[in-house]
UniProtKB/TrEMBL annotation:
GO molecular function per UniProt: NAD+ binding; prephenate dehydrogenase (NAD+) activity; prephenate dehydrogenase (NADP+) activity
InterPro entries named in the record: 6-PGluconate_DH-like_C_sf, ACT-like_dom_sf, ACT_dom, NAD(P)-bd_dom_sf, PDH_C, PDH_N, Preph/Arog_dehydrog, Prephen_DH
Record GO biological process: tyrosine biosynthetic process
UniProt protein name: Prephenate dehydrogenase
Family: Belongs to the prephenate/arogenate dehydrogenase family.
Pathway note: Amino-acid biosynthesis; L-tyrosine biosynthesis; (4-hydroxyphenyl)pyruvate from prephenate (NAD(+) route): step 1/1
Organism: Nocardioides immobilis
Amino acid sequence: MSDLLPGPVEVVGAGLIGTSIALACRRAGIDVLLSDTSPEHLRTASGLGAGHPKLPGDVAALVVVAVPPDHLGEAIEAALDAAGEDTVVTDVGSVKAAPLAAVAGHRALSRYVGSHPMAGSERSGPLAASADLFSGRPWAITAHAGAAATAVRRVATLVEICGAVPVMLTPAEHDKAVARTSHVPHLLASLVAGTLAGAAPEHLALTGQGVRDVTRVAGGDPALYSQIIGGNSEAVAVLLREVRDRLDLALDAVADGDRAGLESLLAHGLAGTRAIPGKHGGPMQAVAAVHVAVPDHPGELARLFADVGASGVNIEDVRIDHDPGRPVGLVELDVAESRAEELLAALESRGWVTHR
Ligand SMILES: NC(=O)C1=CN([C@@H]2O[C@H](COP(=O)(O)OP(=O)(O)OC[C@H]3O[C@@H](n4cnc5c(N)ncnc54)[C@H](O)[C@@H]3O)[C@@H](O)[C@H]2O)C=CC1
Ligand SMILES: O=C(O)C(=O)Cc1ccc(O)cc1
């Protein structure tokens, strides 16, 4: 337990994010109070060991509001109304200007500090939660000008307890940033995924890893993401117009057979992939993919990872694709470019079928 966060922590909204935070706090030995409008989620989260239902009279040191975006304002206000004089309130909503505007006139505004963990999944509810969800992930802290320094420190302590990396931003800057890194990518993933709905099975049989990578986030709950994206409409619209202009250029280049124009658009995209920070927030490391054919039998992945471990090469990322015609998985290991040849040789010497 931390001196800066003595507990208890109250989590309002025991879904994916709320229960994950609660589990991380419990792991750190902090008492957690839970509340949720869904008795089922409350029961499930309590059963997972995330805490116990809040009782009348319980007072938290920190309230974490983790409800869907459309309900953030009212839930933050209710938390500020009910809290003790020393209680700090944060929320973890994916947009930050709107909930702040909803409570801007509150007498206890100095004890509210917004935040946003940049980690999650396509799944919802407490059963998808994990204490490790935020490990090594950025977590924005969006203090407004009138926030008390003690309140900001308490929220930063929560971020540290969850193993995340704090990033200080104003609410407006945050909303512009996530329009670019989360909301527009989500919308475009959904548009691409939509072209697959109802497609001919013989076309879908040619699905590879690329389309899975591009469409993964589109698997998220449409009701939640319409609130997230709709709650950041101004910043999202600015970027969507930029994308629309490029889409028009792409259409013209394809229709006119303009290879140079097409290459220029693709090169711009490549530059974007290189701008994405690497693991742990550092500069992007040059990685190379090593592909390994793995028989679809119990224990084969464990054997492969043990052999990679024995070679001393670190795996930066891993993906698995399936050969539709054979009982074989194709494992793609991303490793530092400078170590790829060494890994290929080590795996081949142990009998694995590999290629770059
Ligand atoms: N899903 C994700 O990957 C991420 C979501 N967020 C944000 O976290 C918040 C929660 O999202 P998830 O955990 O994914 O959703 P979820 O659907 O898994 O959980 C939301 C929970 O809030 C409860 N709830 C709804 N209205 C309530 C109210 N008025 N009072 C108390 N409980 C209420 C629901 O019953 C549910 O248990 C959202 O604001 C979202 O923008 C932030 C980072 C990542
Ligand atoms: O699934 C992913 O890769 C995500 O990026 C999850 C996510 C979803 C919503 C957020 O507000 C923040 C993170």
